[in-house]
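Check my protein:
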Amino acid sequence: MLKKKLILVLGIIAISSSALFSQVNFHGEFVLPTKENAKPMLGVGLSLVQDIRSVDGLALGGYASYRQVLAKNTYSIQIPFMGLARYYINRSGFYPQLALGGMHYFASSKVFNTRFTSSLTRFAFNLGLGYKLDNGLDFTFSYENIVFKNASAHQLSLRLAFAF
């Protein structure tokens, strides 16, 4: 139910904000944690980006996603929400990207007929490289770091977005 509501909210935001932002992107992503034996994730999301006219090549915005771990007997999701900055090099489609924000986790698993759940939100950042094609397709490869109290989690993300 949460997944359907989140997708509906992202769709409403995209439609209502398309006049305010120069780029509204729906994206799908594949995320691979670097921790040993960690399961990959698939996700969908929305990015809103505005070109900054006073600084040639700079674009600012934000994104939110819904990611689910691909594993049996476990329901585990990530919801990243981040502000981002991109700089299009020489007005080409190539850009480095920096994103700062938060990552919300929710996990639920059943062990010996007992259900265990946990939920937490932590600071996260994302460093990436991307390329935007003229037809609206946008590819981004990034490194994500989620900061915990005494540790951090690292993951690699491949995102394919379509702008309208």
